[in-house]
Every structure is written in C-alpha cells, then in structure tokens.
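#struct-queue
[09:14] JT: dropping the first one here, sequence first, then the structure tokens:
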Amino acid sequence: MAMMIIMAVATMVLLALAFSLVLGWANVKFRVEQDPRIGQVEGVVPGANCGGCGYAGCADFARAVVAGEAPPDGCPVGGADVAHAIAEILGITVDGSAPYRPVVHCAADYDDRLQRCDYRGEPTCFAANVIGGVQGCTYGCLGFGDCVKACDYDAIHVVNGLAVVDYEKCIGCGACERACPRHIISMVPFKTDRIVVVACSNHDSGRQVKEVCKVGCIGCKGCEKAMAGVFTVKDNLAEVDYDKVDKDTDFTPALKKCPMGAMLYVGKPTEKDKADVAGEELPAVVTDQFETTADKADWRG
C-alpha cells in the first residue's frame, strides 16, 4: 500500500515536470514579441480608461496607435500634450490638437419650454424619448439625467430641466454624448477655454420653433450672413464650422444678429469673466442669460 502511494506521488511529480518543460518550450517557441512602444504610449496616456477614444481602455488604445489603427491625437482626455508625447514616441509629427469637450445643443430649461405635459412614466431620457409627447420640442433636452448617471466625474448636472456641463471637472470622455437618446450632446474641439455653440437642435421651421421654445434657433440665417463660412444654416438650423475657428475668432457679429439668443458661450471662464464677477457670490454652475449681444453674453460652465 505504501509502495503504491509512493509510485503515485512519483508519477505526479514526473508529470508535473514534463508539463512544465512542455509549457516552457511552448512559451519560448510561440511567444509573440510586443512592440516596446506600446508600453511607452500606455505610460503617457492619462489612464482614465473612459472609452472616449473608441477603445475599451488605454491599453487597447496604445496597441491601436502603435499598429497605426488609431491616430496619435485620438485621446480626448489627454489633448495636445498627450498627442505630442505619443508622436514623439512614434517618431512622427502631429498638427495642433485641441481637446474635445461635450456641448449641449439645447438652451431651453423648464422656463423656456412653452409646451410640456405632466409626464408620469419612467424618469429616464431613454424611456421618455420612446414614448414621445413629453414636451413640445421633439429635439430638446428631456432633463431626466441619463447623461448625469453616465458621467463618472460629476461633470454634468441637470439644472431646472436642462443638462449643463461643468467644464472645470469634465475630462472629455464622451460618456454623456453616448448616453443621450436625442443626440443633442456632441464632442467639440475646444481651441480656447470658451467657445460659441449653437444651443439648439430643432430642425423645424422658425414659426414651429417659436411655438414650443423661447430660445430656439429659427433658421433666420442672420449668423450666416454676418460670418459666412463660420456659420451655415442647414435644414433650418445654424451650425458652426469649428475647422474655421481659432482663438482669435470674434463672434460678435453673429451674436448680435441672433434674435433668439440661441448662440452662447460655454466653457471655462476667462480672467475677464472672473474679474467682472469678483464681488458676486456665484452658484456652483453658472448658466447663460441668453443675451443677444456679444458684450452681454455670459459663459456657462
């Protein structure tokens, strides 16, 4: 009996040694060498694993960049600094890269919506969007906070029924954009800390817009005439061509022409903004007052 136990143990030891030798040989024979640049790229990206680049995480993005499947400036969180660091690792050059941040293409809070119903369904934007009839504007922010739940950085909040981005906290991961069932949140290159956006998504006629909203774009083309090329009106809605915008672009002519106040500044406050309100007690999130002149337009963020 003792001899059988000894033989069994010896057999197991010999099998373990044999399997170890085979696995060691296979590890050497079939090993796939990893490009050392992958680890270098992974070391310079922020490590947020937010998915804003289109990949599951920073490691996947690093592999894709080295393989040429993703651009070196594909990390929206890292912005220009990370893009240039990656380019240096790869031995290439990149043009100036602006960080992408979300903008909400709606400026109508509860007070600006002219037609609303007493919705008693599931309190999510996804559910309300499927049901329809929650409010007169079928393009506007529903205000149930799907974007808020999707954000891991507490960078977007619903204020009086309207989603408002806190650009001091936002890292540009794009989670809020993906969560919005009406697709009124888009990622925009911030070439400066403050940019002008068209805060409306309504493609209806001007008359129909005025029936449901106080601050919606009516497609009057005033901005297009004032700043041809930068603004275009397509399907009754103004759009900004951010490729034609830089830090020196003056939006004053377009802002003065907008009769509805559908365009506004969003982003971080400039030093001038801070000086103008230095003596005031500000709320955590500052919202735009929808003035129609450049001198009166506030920032939101």
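[09:21] JT: and here's the second one, same format:
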Amino acid sequence: MGYSVKWVADNLGITRDMLRYYEKEKLLPANENRHYRNYSDEDIERIWGIKLLIGIGFTAKEIYALMNMPDFDFDTAIAKKVKELERKHEEDVIYLEFAKSIKFLGRIPTTSKIGSVKFDDFLAYAHENWNFYDDPRSAPFMQIADTLISKELQEWSPDDMERILKMFENFDAEGMMHTYALHGYYQVISDMRGLGYDNDAVQRVVHLLHKYLVEHNTEPGLDGKITPKFIAKYTAPFFISGDVAVLHERNYGKEGYMLIEQARG
C-alpha cells in the first residue's frame, strides 16, 4: 500500500507543501496524475535523506546535483559544510553567551559613542571583555548565580552544592574581602531605607562607596574614570533589571535595593 502523505507528516515532520517543494525542485518524482499519493520505501528513504541534508545546510540545488550528477564531489561538499557549521556554531555560542550575560545584567553592551568603533571590532572586544560566561574568573560565579535564581535552596542538587563550595575554595582572600565590603556598603544603605535616597547620611555612605571603588580599582583602563556619573550609568542599572536585580532584591528586600539604586543613580 505504501506510505501516505499523512504518515510522512506524522513520522518525518514534512508537510504536504514541503513535499510539493521537493517535487518542484526535482528532488522527488512529480505526481503527474494528481491522484492521492503513496510513497514507496525508496521514496521514504530519499525524503529522509533530503530533510537531513537540508537540515545541515545543503541547498535544493546541491542535493539535486548529489542525486543526479555522477561527478558531484560529495566529500568536498560535506567538508565545506562542516566548516560552515563550525563557524555558525561558534557564532551561536558567542551570541548565546551574550544573551545570557544581557539577561543577567539587564543591559546591552555598547560604546560611549555609537560610530566610534566598527561593530565587528566592538563585537570582538565585547566577547573578550564583556562575556562573563566565557571568562574563567567569572564563569563559576555565573553558574552559581543561575542556580540561585532558578532554584530554591531545598531544590539544590549535590552537584549544585559542590559547585558553590568549589567556588568559595578557589575564591582568593582579596576577592572575598572586596565582595564582603561591597555587600557591607549596600547593606548599610538598605538599612537606611526609611530616610530616603537624598538624605545626607545615605549620600555620605554613597560617597564612601565611590571612594572605595576608586581606591580598589584593578582595571588600569578605568583609572580616573570611576566618577559618580560613571557609577550611576554602569552600576546603578544592575539594581533595575536583569537577573542581578533579582539577586539584589533577595539580599536587601525590594525597598532596600530600590533605595540603593536611587541613591547611586
């Protein structure tokens, strides 16, 4: 009896319109009599191969040549396709990691002035300097942040706990002190939530935080650039959107983290 169009759709995921496209491109014999069509075992095998080749990037023209031209060099064609897929995979990984970084921080990387650098050059720079999931120093923290955001404590697996413990084992004392110092400033500001962001005491703590960031800056490229305006532009947004804002809300409460954002902004 053969295989019906419905069977092909249900089992191979190929619609009637796609089968007609295959026929139009001469990848399948045309249904000349326009009657209800059944496909043979040979047809099914061919349809399977066509879909697979299209899925990895072959064009209908290339598939036709493969099927009908004895001198078609399949080895060269598939080697070329592998290289194309490898390049695409690298690009996909880069953009996936960018998307995850943007999701975490809640903002898109940009330059101080659009047009000051070509986009491709900026993309290469941002991938090297802004991609936290690709940075050996920050990648473990990002994995833990994903766990903290997506799971409650009681849902942590033994592997989750092991990753967290290993991060703390590998965390150098200076980095740990810096993290606790920042948390201390944020906690003090949060505890002043009843005073308002423009209160003199709140702003004094903000001033001390700014002074601390300047004195403990480890990036030579930021020397002289960590001004209150710089902090407002590049760090205050971390309390507004993105996964990092979720973490801040958990640490300091909604009112507390909103006061921190207002005071630093």
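[09:30] RK: nice, looked through the second one.
[09:31] RK: The radius of gyration is 28 Å.
[09:31] JT: good to know. The longest strand covers residues 3-4.
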